[in-house]
Specification:
Two copies of one chain form a homodimer.
Chain A lengths: L12 H5 L1 H13 L9 E2 L8 E2 L4 E2 L25 H10 L3 E3 L11 E3 L1 H20 L4 E2 L5 E3 H7 L1 H4 L1 E6 L6 E3 H19 L11 H10 L7 H12 L6 H10 L15 E4 L3 E4 L5 E5 L4 H6 L1 H7 L6 E10 L14 E11 L10 H4 L3 E5 L1 H5 L6 E4 H6 L6 H17 L6 E5 L11 E9 L2 E10 L3 H10 L5 E18 L1 H8 L3 H9 L3 H14 L1 E5 L7 E5 L3 E15 L2 E8 H12 E3 L7 E3 L10 E5 L6 H14 L4 E3 L6 H11 L3 E5 L1 H6 L1 E6 L5 E5 H13 L4 H7 L2 E2 L12
């Protein structure tokens, strides 16, 4: 599998405008202290950071280019080297996921979840909903994915949510420009190494890609200076815009290995799936690229639903769509994916304090702040979130609160604690309006993967939609101590004003009402002295209009302001559920010592697709009633089970379910028929206890709910030894 | 609100081919015994019955045209006349749902669910998943909504999933042809009534539509014969194809009231949202119009996942998309909607028995079978499903099992038992391959609404996809008693055959292997007698090829067949979640006696968006710890609550939550501060009990889980009387 560090994320228009200076800053950094970090990263859950650069718009990557030549150093849950091929083959065999439309040849970037993947996803979502929505009384909404053009025009997606692509003039292939440049230069560097007789590290890749790339690899020695140039380009491949990528293609005469010709210059390709709504074809629409917009558009209704109380959060779980040019990386980069997003609306005036911050202040996070990154390091600092906010490393309490809550959520679903870090966006990665932004990244065989973004987006989104539509997306707050305001106020005598100025009346009135305070003060004086004033009204007469005192009065007036109106800021935690799900699979996978074919996924019971495997030791009819009763009983206490009454040995049946991550096994054996006792097996230790039905069911319930550990159960119920002997390596 | 009886459903190609005869059958029926039924119907959850008729394809309606002139006779849960306007205003005020993109002017047929709608939907889905997926060990999958063209071409949607539309040449308006004809004729009949001085019944409609239609209504008297003609056309409006609708428009010179001109002839409009997948734009795709196809395509993998065992069912919950020409009817006809579909795969050889049928055999359903409908009646028959299958009214046990299970599901979520019926499709409504099909219809203010379809689709879907792709979408079953087959078999001597016939060898071999048994028998004899045979091989030499016995042998051979291969049939229950949700709102709505402004939605606790309202009687600081502790405690036992600590009176706060359907209210009052007791209020009766915290929480838990009724609780805990007095009509 090739490293995916340069998978794109989105950037803000203004971050994009700062693009050139950013680029040069980085170039300097890389020549001095900045060194490539050892592990690549995948970004792009965050949907918001797109950039504008030169005349074309660019969907730009914000990662530092890191070493892409490394082989995977990923490990299993037990610290064994991760055999990604074995894991993926197991995941497909057990139908965690499968390419969509497989029998029709499939479509890149589209995957279906099979039964265990689907249950795993449902459990993650269920925990997410409890952890965030219910725990914090968030207002969950379900908005449509179909979105009309105007909405995404306002949000900036229509103009800027794009990648650069090149067309091969010979065969019409569409290449993603940055990937193309990178692939060809990497192939040349590889050829150079071969020519120099150096060992070329084999990257894990899917065979199709390898074959295609192999075409371009020839053992040709390059000059040392050229090698250095190529390496420098690769180190900052994510920072080139379309024009610059086009220049590189020309300068180095980069050719598509498939055809041997140079592709056409890069053009911007919008990543949204477009469609037409309604029969006329006139209403352009898109499949939403994120779930956030629906929440912003409903802001006023949600505020009203919340009885006007601030702060509050909305939340949404739903599919989003991105028409990737050439998806790679399995579940990590797909064209249709499940997101869970929260928009926490907060008054910017209160320093974004959070009333429950004290509950999480002592939680320790692994932080990779922007200063460390700017110094070329990737060393994380373990620090309590309380300390991080105090030191201003994290901008404010609300943002800090959500980082800690995200951490707790990831921990709860079983993410490996040693494989989480929170990475802060650097200044040039962030949207201009954003105050601060952190990604929760999970370490996988593809490097650090951005799985959750958490940004303080200020008042940007509500402001642009309010401006476009005129809808008052604001909070009106009754002031405890009313504010007194005194100012000059012109007052028009409507009765006379209209007849006097006729068709120009509105224009003249508007000009007067728009006058600044200092001008009004002057004119009030003039009106008193001369009984008339002269006002500049471009377009009316000669641009000067005389207004007499019977038509207008200008007075110093006192106002009591009881209402404060403001646009809330928004803190946005945004979860890529598919990426979290895939990372979870890798984090919980391991193989039984001494038998590499025996994979296990040690899901915590709460997320495990199925909680209990029921295994009758024999297919004799006497066993059937026990199986039915147990299933029924477990179901009635809300625990999912599956029966395996196949003729395979008990050991083989357990091994099959270890691969599915089923935490508990319930065996019905001949002793059951005599005394009504069952054995309960724990997946990870393969240890067993034996007891009567009620005790066993109670134990399972406590284990699944998390109120007891397996150690507790072993201390309460008699240990059973025997059957597990049947699991011999030879059987698997 | 206008009746929606003619909202379209889909029909099979062959049902469409039988279209003309069907039409005439109906015409006869309507002239003799068939009388319009009193209540209109809405169909179209079932995605599968599209029809082909004449040269154009048509997305055809299968309902008998019924009386569309009636006013709503809908009633509330308590039998009061339903004030639909009041209900809808309440639902919007409480944000059950809202038009999507409202601040941008909205898009017809797109709705967002607000917090209570979203929670209601999540609860319905949760119960659905437990009731179907977990209870029956179904294999749930989550497939992409993006679907490539080829898949939907094979399924028939590309060619036949269409409606007829007309364009207005003057203003470019697109009109749905059947609706247009209907609207104009209805307006003329209304004008006629006015001219005759008859009372015109006012239909409930949204004001916009009314205004538009009013334009076309002029008080012009028609001849009696014309009135009769119009009425006959309206009675069968759903049965006209595009050409016929075009003829009606010409014949009666129907003009668009908005422009005064006749629209162009109807053309077919495909109802799928089209898009392009990938950057080249060459891979056409659609947003799926149903979730079923993904399940069919994964059949082979699912069968393997299920260890080859039959029968089994897959299930899927997800959004589907239909580009309606002119959506009307709120949540009942939308362009993006949530479906839940089951595909139960069964061996057709076993008479489609179901092993759990005995569990449901005694359940009584309200059936409206096809014979009753053909006789022009809509009288339902109450009958146990056991009896219905026995009498062959319902085709088979598996179909019957699911009808009963659907009934139990609808009952569980709180559908009014007096407002469900199961209506059988008539022969001409069904796809040619379908054996039987029943819709669960719910009675609403828009008439009988098709909310669940349940069809026996035979082997159609798997067969067409297997034929198109070559994938073996079959079950291979080891026969218990192997079958012995004896037959003539030619055996080619490959070593000599190639050199003898050279380039023609393959062709000659194929010709021999394709020979029928009787021919082979004859040739075997010939080979024995003459030592050679002459075979017809068109295109080789003169079309006759001589083959000697050293090149081929033909022998009578015995084979033992151990494997039986078959394509499973599929029973498909298909749920339109949005329609069920809307019907549920109507079924559970009522108003408190004596105060029409006090709406209540009596959701069963399991589906209620929020289970408990926590109401501190005062905003004093002493109350806060109680509020926090109670919320926390309820959450820990999995029960969602909401706090209303506003300054409104207790009565007003309860009234607000009655509208949200919150079943229980927990009041913290001054007595709580002294003795730690709380009052618990039941929404429907407004009765209260008072007890200490633990007893109250236990009672709530039992009530929500359904293990106790309110009567049980009243018999166990002391009745409390007092606070409810605060709810005075004047306060609301």
């Amino acid at each position: 599998m090739r490293p995916l560090a340069r998978l794109a994320s989105l950037r803000s228009p203004v971050a994009g405008q700062a693009f050139k200076s950013t680029l040069s800053t980085r170039a300097v950094a890389s020549r001095t202290s900045w060194t490539p970090a050892p592990i690549p990263r995948i970004s792009s859950t965050s949907l918001r950071s797109f950039s504008l650069s030169t005349s074309h718009h660019r969907f730009q990557v914000y990662v530092k280019k890191q070493n892409t030549k490394m082989t995977s150093t990923a490990t299993t849950l037990k610290g064994q080297p991760l055999d990604k091929g074995a894991l993926e083959s197991m995941l497909r065999r057990r139908m965690f996921f499968a390419p969509s439309f497989d029998i029709y040849g499939g479509v890149a970037g589209l995957y279906d979840y099979g039964p265990p993947g689907c249950a795993l996803q449902a459990n993650i979502i269920d925990i997410w909903r409890k952890h965030f929505v219910l725990e914090e009384d968030m207002l969950e909404v379900d908005c449509t994915a179909l979105t009309p053009h105007d909405v995404l025009k306002t949000s900036g997606h229509v103009d800027k949510f794009a990648d650069w692509m090149c067309k091969d003039p010979k065969n019409g292939d569409i290449l993603r420009a940055d990937h193309f440049v990178e692939d060809v230069l990497e192939a040349r560097l590889k050829g150079d190494k071969e020519a120099r007789g150096q060992k070329v590290e084999d990257k894990e890749e899917d065979p199709k890609r390898k074959k295609k790339k192999a075409k371009g690899t020839e053992a040709v020695k390059l000059e040392d200076a050229v090698v250095k140039e190529y390496e420098e380009i690769l180190a900052q491949i994510d920072n080139y815009n379309g024009e610059q990528l086009g220049e590189l293609i020309k300068k180095y005469d980069l050719k598509n290995p498939a055809t041997g010709v140079q592709p056409e210059p890069p053009v911007a390709f919008n990543l949204m799936f477009q469609t037409a709504i309604g029969p006329s074809g006139n209403l352009a629409g898109y499949m939403r690229p994120e779930t956030a917009q629906g929440q912003f558009l409903n802001f006023a209704k949600l505020l009203e639903y919340n009885a006007g109380n601030m702060p509050f959060a909305s939340a949404s779980i739903g599919k989003s769509y991105r028409n990737e040019i050439a998806p790679r990386g399995g579940l990590l980069r797909v064209r249709e994916f499940l997101m869970a997003e929260i928009e926490h609306f907060v008054d910017p005036a209160g320093h974004k304090k959070h009333e429950r911050f004290h509950e999480v202040a002592d939680i320790e996070l692994a932080l990779l702040d922007r200063n460390v990154q700017l110094s070329g390091q990737t060393t994380v600092t373990k620090m309590t979130i309380g300390e991080a906010v105090k030191q201003k490393i994290v901008d404010n309490e609300t943002l800090g609160y959500f980082l800690a809550r995200i951490h707790l959520f990831l921990k709860k679903i079983g993410v490996d604690q040693s494989k989480i870090r929170f990475r802060q966006h650097m200044g040039n990665e962030m949207a201009h309006y954003a105050c601060d932004c952190w990604d929760a990244e999970l370490l996988t065989s593809s490097g650090w993967v951005e799985c959750v973004g958490c940004a303080d987006r200020s008042a940007y989104d509500l402001t642009v939609h309010a401006k476009k539509t005129g809808a008052p997306l604001v909070v009106r707050e009754t002031l405890e101590t009313p504010e007194i305001v005194e100012k000059w106020e012109p007052e028009i005598n409507s009765k006379k004003f209209g007849p006097t100025f006729r068709k120009d009346a509105k224009t003249v009135e508007a000009a007067i009402l728009a006058l600044p305070q200092e001008e009004l003060a002057k004119l009030a004086e003039e009106l008193k002295t001369n009984g008339k004033i002269v006002v500049d009204v471009p377009g009316v007469g000669d641009g000067k209009v005389e207004v007499s005192k019977d038509l207008v009065a200008i007075e110093w007036k006192k106002h009591t302001i009881n209402i404060r109106e403001y646009t809330p800021n928004v803190i946005e935690p945004s979860f890529g559920i598919g990426r979290i799900l895939y990372s979870l699979l890798e984090h919980n996978y391991w193989v039984r010592e001494g038998d590499e074919a025996r994979g296990v996924i040690s899901f915590p019971p709460a997320v495990a697709p199925v909680k209990v495997l029921i295994v009758p030791i024999s297919s004799k009819a006497e066993f059937a009633p026990h199986v039915r009763r147990l299933s029924q009983k477990l179901r009635s206490v809300g625990i999912s089970s599956r029966v395996d009454d196949s003729s395979a040995s008990i050991g083989r049946r357990y091994a099959r379910n270890d691969e599915l991550g089923t935490p508990f096994g319930l065996t019905i054996d001949f002793q059951t028929l005599q005394d009504g006792t069952f054995t309960l097996r724990e997946r990870d230790s393969t240890r067993q206890v034996r007891a009567e039905e009620e005790k066993i069911v109670d134990a399972i319930k406590a284990l699944v709910e998390g109120s007891k550990t397996w150690q507790d159960v072993e201390s309460e119920l008699p240990i059973f030894e025997g059957q597990e002997l049947e699991i011999r390596p030879a059987e698997n």
